[in-house]
TrEMBL record:
Keywords: DNA-binding, Transcription, Transcription regulation. The lineage of its organism: Bacteria, Pseudomonadati, Pseudomonadota, Betaproteobacteria, Rhodocyclales. The keyword 4Fe-4S does not apply. It holds the Pfam family GerE. InterPro entries: Sig_transdc_resp-reg_C-effctor, Tscrpt_reg_LuxR_C, WalR-like. Signal peptide: none annotated. This is Response regulator transcription factor.
Length: 204
């Protein structure tokens, strides 16, 4: 994939360099004016005090998906970015591994909302579905899952994080991740949110 990083100055941060060494830097004024080639993902830095609604429209008019790199990230800002049309929002100074995860999710057609907000959304979705249709919320897990995989899947569907699952089951987080990989494959789901919706009885 081709990446373009948009900022008010040519400041290629070390974490960007490590995650996207071939990315092009483009000044925001030029990018908003239509300069630069079309790319797979356009990363736009949102500095402290700046408004998403002022920055995004011109960038969204071009081909490629836009991810906001926020100097002051937060759940409200992430939701605002997604509502405005961005494909994701993360911390400007996120570790290279996180930026690569964002790129993978967005590049495959997903939205990046961040782990904290994702857990909140899953938990709220599970509670809403359970209240609306208690019977479907208790739908049986697929028989193809092992007993441990069923435990992990049920906890994910209730909004538990990998760390919480690991603590409750007295296993390592890497073991939880391994179980999740198998669960996604066996249930035909792509991520935690899809899995939660499926287990809680909502058709995808």
């Amino acid at each position: 994939m081709e990446y373009e990083i948009v900022d008010t100055e040519h400041a290629f941060l070390p974490n960007w360099q490590a995650a996207m060494p071939a990315a092009r830097m483009v000044l925001r004024a030029a990018a908003q004016g239509g300069a630069g080639a079309d790319v797979s993902i356009r990363w736009c830095r949102l500095r402290a005090g700046e408004s998403i609604t002022v920055i995004l429209p011109a960038l969204l008019a071009r081909n490629g998906k836009t991810v906001i790199l926020a100097d002051e990230p937060g759940d409200a800002l992430i939701l605002e970015a997604l509502s405005a049309g961005a494909a994701g929002c993360c911390n400007t100074h996120a570790a290279p591994e996180v930026l690569q995860q964002v790129a993978a999710v967005v590049g495959n057609g997903g939205l990046w909302v961040g782990q904290n907000l994702l857990q909140q959304l899953i938990g709220r979705t599970a509670r809403i579905l359970s209240n609306q249709n208690p019977a479907s919320a208790k739908a049986a897990l697929p028989d193809t899952l092992s007993e441990r995989e069923k435990q992990v899947a049920a906890m994910v569907a209730s909004g538990a994080s990998n760390k919480e699952i690991a603590n409750r089951l007295s296993i390592a987080e890497r073991t939880v991740k391994a179980h999740l990989t198998a669960i996604f494959d066996k249930t035909g789901t792509r991520d935690r949110l899809q899995l939660s919706l499926k287990i809680n009885g909502l058709k995808l």
